[in-house]
Amino acid sequence: MKSRLSLSALAAGALLAIGLAGPAAAAGLDLGRYSLSSTFALPTSTASESSAITWNWDSDTLFVLGDEGDHITELSRSGQVLGSMALSGFNDTEALTYTGNGRFVIGEERLQDVYQLSYQAGATVARGSLKSVSLGPTVGNVGLEGISYDRSNGQFVTVKEKSPQAVQFGSIDFDNGTHTMTSLFTPNLGVLDLADVQVLPGSGNLLVFSQESSRLLEVSRSGVVLSSLDFSALSGSTEGVTITADGTIYLTDETPNVYVFSAAPVPEPETYALMLAGLAALAWLTRRHGA
């Protein structure tokens, strides 16, 4: 009777633990569940030295940008090239984000300026013809590296590479040429640089990629690292990251390639309960046999 009571208590404890842990686990993305599912090459003619990638939720397609600022290229999620738009006047484009209704924001690293454009396949757009906002002074090759649009509030999050690293958030008004960008937190993430950022829908947490440390981080809005993914075995020149509505993560590098990461399904709480109850029963039988 004592052994059966212990088994019941263990099973009940397992169920309680799952009930407590479930919501907390669901709040985060948990990059530990992710693994490489596919890789596809980008066209060197329009995506040379690809350094930024974003997801267009209206068309469910991807857009990539090279750091020479020659083109913005549209791709299917399986890697098929759908079209491109030529850019002129840019020379150090490192940041790209989609803001809805066919509009994108491009950022130049050294100038730390951002530009708003509407994508048109086959067309050409000059930097001087676009609405722009300066987010900071001109710096060396350590400036604006990533930008992400937060659909929940219409604000932006940006990262500065280093010297010092910076994570900022706020509004950008392209019509008036003004912004309210301010520090979100002081980065202390254990990485050598910040290469890109992506706001995670729902939680508001951030995906932050470090090119020099080859690590993808899930970070809270207060700067706490929640989970991470080591990228060092795949590429040392990756600089861009985005995520789609189904949780698929896409990263792009200068080779140029796109790496697709998918998450393993999370077992239902009942599965955990049965597994733990089974382990408890096995332990009870082992003790009984030993007795």
Automatic annotation (TrEMBL):
<dbReference type="Pfam" id="PF07589">
    <property type="entry name" value="PEP-CTERM"/>
</dbReference>
<dbReference type="InterPro" id="IPR013424">
    <property type="entry name" value="Ice-binding_C"/>
</dbReference>
<feature type="signal peptide">
    <location>
        <begin position="1"/>
        <end position="26"/>
    </location>
</feature>
<keyword id="KW-1003">Cell membrane</keyword>
<feature type="domain" description="Ice-binding protein C-terminal">
    <location>
        <begin position="265"/>
        <end position="288"/>
    </location>
</feature>
<dbReference type="Pfam" id="PF06977">
    <property type="entry name" value="SdiA-regulated"/>
</dbReference>
<dbReference type="InterPro" id="IPR009722">
    <property type="entry name" value="YjiK/CarP"/>
</dbReference>
<keyword id="KW-0732">Signal</keyword>
<comment type="similarity">
    <text>Belongs to the YjiK family.</text>
</comment>
<dbReference type="InterPro" id="IPR011042">
    <property type="entry name" value="6-blade_b-propeller_TolB-like"/>
</dbReference>
<protein>
    <submittedName>
        <fullName>SdiA-regulated domain-containing protein</fullName>
    </submittedName>
</protein>
<keyword id="KW-0472">Membrane</keyword>
